[in-house]
Amino acid sequence: MKTYNVAVVGTGAVGQTILKVLEERNFPVGRLKVLATSRSAGKSVNFKGEEYVIEETTPAAFAGIDIALFAGGEASKLYGRAAVEAGAVVIDNSNNFRMDPDVPLVVPEVNPQDVRWHKGLIANPNCSTIQMVVALKPIYDAVGIKRIVVSTYQAVSGAGQEAIDELRHQSKQVLAGEKVTGSVFPHQIAFNCLPHIDVFLENGYSKEEMKMVNETKKIMGDDQIQVTATTVRVPVFNGHSEAVNVETREKLTAAAAKELLRRAPGVVVVDDLEAKAYPLAIHADGRDEVFVGRIREDFTVPCGLNMWIVADNLRKGAATNAVQIAELLVQEGLL
Questions:
Q1: Active centre residues (catalytic)
Q2: Mean pLDDT over each residue of the chain, to the nearest integer
């Protein structure tokens, strides 16, 4: 089997999960480089039973690399183009290139064909966008979609390891009756919900909300879809949940929607009200599928559906989607 030299850039929650997913899916890694900031350089990580010393990210570090998986943050802004110039195909988990018209924004279950026009850079969409479009693609293909209204319930792991630590620490403080302290979020996250993810924009929406609006249109290849979003951070360690209302162009019954989704790649339908079975973040944790339930018709419009969508934001929302893109590149012979 042909192997590929791979660089993983970033050793936080997403970077660690990328390494885990590469190993689990037995991606044909030849030589592996793990790159990070000078702060992390010299430490080591484990991959397939071997220890790899973390190197500092520099333009020279990408020499001989076939695929560079950037975990997110500022790294791709600083080194993404340099990695491409060195000969690597960059799969980037940050927001730096997602809306660049020359950069494909790819979810393999939705628009795999878009990898074919990459020019060295491929963007991994926002975690909350990924799980939503995986669930909506079969509905879009069957009856079209006019409008999407989504409210998210996003886990703290989406804000990184420090956010996970802050929720754990604050929960202990609250239960102990101590004063709550924190630095990651603008308000207490323990036992609380914050309708504030990323910065607020002039239109009153947050950057996270506008990511969902704009990315959905680009991934679906349809600027006519109307999308509005409210994104909320909740005191859950891992796994994003979403309440999604969809107005379709043609009538689709709840039963027909369930059948479509049961056949859809990467989707698991969990929808048995008598058994109180519906998607939960605790069940999605550590899984790569997108879970969909509470599928029901919206009786306020002629053609509408409501559903509840849950996925592991570190895996399908980030690391797994990136590795799946790398697998697509291999399958298509695009490296």
A1: 127, 240
A2: 97
